[in-house]
Design a protein that fits this description.
Length: 296
């Protein structure tokens, strides 16, 4: 990820309609992409409706697609627990019918390429979805959620979906705070959006929706995450992962137009279920065993 030394522009929309909020934010920022090969990575998690708090509303993706001009290749990709179900039930098949040059990719079954990490925090090399590197422009669309291991699930975390298979994810998920720093060195986010119309608090496995009524957009991933987290009541300037991200890419300078953050702050509960803690304990053990006998 390359963060230029410039003042980035963000827009914060207050809305109960994800599509209208996305259009408002994108138009206020003058967003459009011309003639590039575009990869769109929404956080789908599963095939649940967006109001359950776990999944990006399809309206944000639609708003982006409407502003892609003469783009010869457009891919929408994800690697969640059931990507096919998510595409089927959340309206992505319809988007393919409506927009030319759009294809869907289940990253779990796509090609894999290993990449050396320039400045390793967790590992020297990692496997990634291969086709994303055939694109010029990555649009990162995250959901506003808490996460017991990563702290928050925003745009920095959304890149985790480019690790293809479940077994490969196991090598990194228990160590996700450091692994995210490695991943984001390889795959840049050129434009970011966050769906916070309905967010999810407390547990990342269980749906615990919380109404926040915001859509946020901007061209600096760290800035977008900082503002989204501030709305959730989380200070990323005090978060160790993001401090390291600032060392890598610089502390972003930005201005926010639209609504004021202070008017929209909502306290997201942090924590997780006992069953989730037990699941992560098993994951950590499996990860160590898997890494002993597999490339990583």
């Amino acid at each position: 990820m390359s963060q230029e030394n410039k003042v980035s522009k963000l827009y914060l929309a207050h809305t109960d309609n994800p599509y209208k909020g996305a259009c408002e934010a994108l138009d206020a920022l003058g967003f459009s992409v011309h003639g590039k090969r575009v990869y769109i990575k929404p956080n789908l998690t599963a095939g649940q409706p967006s109001e359950y708090g776990m999944t990006v509303d399809t309206g944000l993706v639609r708003a982006v697609l409407e502003r892609l001009v003469d783009c010869p290749q457009i891919t929408i990709g994800e690697s969640c627990s059931d990507t096919v179900k998510a595409f089927d039930e959340l309206g992505y098949r319809q988007l393919v019918k409506e927009f030319p040059n759009v294809q869907l990719e289940d990253i779990r079954s796509a090609g894999i390429v290993w990449k050396q990490i320039p400045k390793p925090y967790h590992t020297q090399e990692m496997p990634f979805n291969a086709s994303v590197f055939d694109h010029d422009y990555v649009i990162n669309i995250a959901k506003m959620k808490t996460h017991s291991l990563a702290g928050v699930t925003l745009c920095l975390k959304n890149i985790f979906g480019f690790v293809p298979t479940r077994k490969q994810k196991l090598m990194y998920h228990p160590f996700i705070r450091k692994a995210l720093l490695d991943m984001n060195q390889i795959i840049p986010s050129h434009f970011c959006m966050i769906d916070g119309v309905w967010g999810n608090e407390f547990d990342e496995v269980q749906s615990t929706p919380i109404s926040t009524n915001v859509v946020l957009a901007g061209d600096n991933m760290l800035a977008v995450d900082i503002i989204a987290a501030a709305i959730m009541g989380v200070d990323l300037y005090k978060d160790n992962t993001y401090r390291k991200a600032f060392e890598l890419w610089g502390v972003p300078e930005f201005i926010v137009s639209g609504k004021q953050v202070d008017d929209l702050r909502t306290t997201y509960r942090q924590g997780c279920l006992l069953s989730t803690r037990f699941r992560y304990f098993k994951e950590a053990a499996s990860s160590l065993a898997y890494r002993m006998v597999n490339r990583h």
